[in-house]
Amino acid sequence: MTNEAKLQHTVSAPKAKKRKIASLDKKKARAGWVFVLPFIIGFLLVYLPIIWDSIYMTFHSISIVDGGGIDLLPVGFENYSDALTEDPHFVQTLLTGMKELLFDVPAILIFSLFMAVLLNQKMVGRAVFRAIFFIPVILSTGIMESIAGANMLGTMMEGSGSIDGSQQSAASEIVSVMDIEKLFYSMKIGQGLVEYVAKMINEIYDIVNRSGVQMLIFLAGLQSISPAIYEACRIDGCTAWETFWKITFPMISPMILVNGIYTIIDSFTTDSNSVMRYIRSVYDKGTEGQVLSSAMAWMYFIIVMLMLAAAAGLFSAFVFYQRRD
Amino acid sequence: MDMNMQNTPKITKESKNKIRVEFDRTPLKERLKAKFLNLYFFQRVAWIIFRMALLVGISYVVLFPFVSKIAGSFMSPEDFVDVTVRLIPKNFTLDIYKAVLFELDYGEAFVNTLIISLLCGLLQTFVCCLIGYGLAKFRFKGNSLIMMLVILTMIVPHQTLQLSMFMHFRYFDVLGILSFLSGGASVGFMPDSFNELLAGIQLFQLQDNALALTNTYWPLAILSVTGLAFKNGLYIFMLRQFFTGVPDALEESAYIDGSGVFRTFFTIILPLSIPMMVTVFLFAFCWQWTDDFYTETFFNSSKITLMPDIVKVPKSLDIQYAGKEVYEEAIRNTCGLCIIMPLVILYSFGQNFLVQGIERSGLTAE
Question: Which of A147, B220, B225, B329 has minimal Cβ neighbours within 10 Å of its Cβ?
């Protein structure tokens, strides 16, 4: 009897406890839903219909009725085939855009990691340099970018203006690419690498402009590495070079994954991207162009998604996660 | 042995707490030599010089376009055809600024953009905080699915959605409620006078059984409140990482003291995350300020003057001469400068928060 009672007691006690925990969890889960509610409502009621409409309309031709409404005619894949076969520039722009992306992403990643490591070191005027480096993140977007785009067109037409505030001049005034190329050729490293570095230097303004957020993320990552590890390394006699490759690089590798994905997303949605510019110019051509531009944008989106998946798979194979206990 | 004895310092006890040590110091020259004449020191100096040169060089690349724009904005038309003028104007003038500020409705654009940017900035910061906190601290079913959806909204380029977004807000009608109310009739169910009243206060108009929300502040407000506006995915991600780094013990102790989930959030978590919130607000405000995509989409035929509308050549400066193209470029650049001037002031105050907020966030990938 007593034994049984004991047994029952021991069984029932954890049961009651367990139920209590579950209810708290449920409560917390409900609170969690309340916190994300704005997003869910917005996603279901606003975003999903917008996306659906956008895809739906690419399978239709559109015309404006006199009353002010619009008329949709189903045409199947005509918009897509038009974009691929009839538009003279789209495929070409797409290919150059892809090439640009393949060039840009490693360049931005390397540059922003390098700068973050530099800006993380203790030195005179660090705060000033940081403030300067993050100016483009805040200021060179939207309107400023489109004004700068107009400038580039202006300088191209003009040859060389007298006060061209354009980017190319700023970069080419520091170093001429020819000198760099000569220097690197004499160092006998592969021609591909030389061209890559030369191009990177040529487009340094663009790269600096677009690596602000990445720099911030890398800086945050660098700050989270414990200084004790570096100290241990120094005591063991590591050089700075070894420390970078054996400590900093593995510890920062999750950030490289995040930044790689962010850079791909950012560089293909930015207005200065050549494909995006082209799609926008098609959009401005009128109602027909608007549908066509949507079809183009969706095709571009699918291609970039594939690239994103490939990049994520490739990066994540090399990512090192520090186990936290 | 003898030498050793000589070199050992002689210690005499002077008082209870004081000792006196007598030893031969190495001469100053020797000490300096040991300190500065070695490879390690040279390496360090070389590295510092190299680093400085690099940072100054890149700062130059960042700042030069701004410097040249500022220089161009003070020049008079003659300077643009003068080959000897590069960065310092010969005939210093404020004509361009005067024309941009007074002829182009700068004041109106400023006020309107300020309203929109403040509205969007505050709403987005708050809503993204809510969503980020919900995703970081509560393990409910579908948590990771919602995170995926947030990332999806980040990677679908907004140009893809431009047309349907415009359509959607031009004929705003959630779940067809309005057309249901009007019984599918083609005429509006509201009297025209009511419509005119609504149009008068620029809230919204009822047209074709739907609300015409374009040319009002509503589309941006709706997108902001639901965390779908420009780059909100990034903010949610940043805030989620930040809140993940906040120790659970803080909330647990608050729960034990009898505080509810929401009270804990507002009284403990939010004050804690002010640097991060300032960072997000700075981003949201500045990116909305210079945005020309949403303003172009939603304010296409509007009486509301916004910043992108004032990037044009003022009438008084529209003159025919040889350097016209360069001159107009300089005018457009000046418009750009006038647009970002308030942001520069804001940035100079907020940049400290920007760096610190991100650094403290402990942004780590999982």
Answer: B225
Superfamily in which the B105-360 domain is placed by CATH: MetI-like (1.10.3720.10)
pLDDT in tens, B42-56: 888 998 899 999 899
Same domain? For A45 and A97 the reply is no
CA–CA separation, B96 vs A196, rounded Å? 41
* Nearest CB neighbour to A257, from listed B174, B265, B365: B365
Output the domain CATH number for residue A194.
1.10.3720.10
Domain of residue A31 covers 2-58
Taking CA–CA distances from A218, the nearest residue in chain B reads B363
Kindly report, residue by residue over A23-65, the tens digit of the pLDDT. 777 878 888 888 888 899 888 888 888 888 878 877 777 666 6
Cβ contacts of B75 on chain A, cutoff 8 Å: 163
In this structure, is the dihedral angle defined by the CA atoms of residues A218, A223, A225 and A228, taken in order, positive or negative?
Answer: positive
| C-alpha separations of B116 from A101, A139, B122, B300 in Å | 33, 17, 10, 16
Query: Cβ contact (<8 Å) for B160 and A298?
Result: yes
- What number is the ipTM of this complex? 0.73
pLDDT for the residue numbered B40: 83
Determine which of A110, A118, A139 to mutate to test the interface with B (most B C-beta atoms within 10 Å). A139
Reported as a single tens digit per residue, the pLDDT across B304-326 is: 777 777 777 777 777 777 667 77
Residues of B with CB below 8 A from A257's CB?
Answer: 365
Mean pLDDT over B252-263 rounds to 88
Record: contact A32-B358, CB cut-off 8 A:
no
Q: What is the b/e burial string over B187-219, where b = at least 16 CB atoms within 10 angstroms of the residue's CB?
A: ebebeeeebeebbeeeebbbebbbbbbbbbbbb
* Beta-carbon separation of A144 and B157 below 8 A: no
Instruction: Tell me, yes or no, whether A163 and A296 share the same domain.
Output: yes
pLDDT interval class at B197 (50, 70, 90)? low
Q: Residue B13: what are its φ and ψ, rounded to 5°?
A: -90, 120
* Residues A5-19, mean pLDDT to the nearest whole number: 50
Q: Kindly report whether the global pTM for this prediction surpasses the value 0.80.
A: no
CB–CB of B365/A316 below 8 Å? no
pLDDT tens for B121-176 read: 999 999 999 999 998 888 888 888 888 888 888 777 776 777 778 877 777 766 66
Among A36, A222, A285, most B C-beta atoms within 10 A, so best to mutate, is: A36
Whether A226 maps to a domain, the answer reads yes
| A73, β-bridge pairs | A61
Q: Per-residue DSSP letters for B169-218?
A: HHTB-GGGHHHHHTTT-SS-SS-HHHHHHHHHTTS-EEETTEEE-TTSSH
Mutate to test the interface with B, among A163, A202, A239, A320 (most CBs of B within 10 A): A163
The minimum CA-CA distance between A10 and chain B, rounded to whole Å, is 26
Contact residues, chain A, for B150 at CB < 8 Å = 39
Contact A220 B343 (CB under 8 A): no
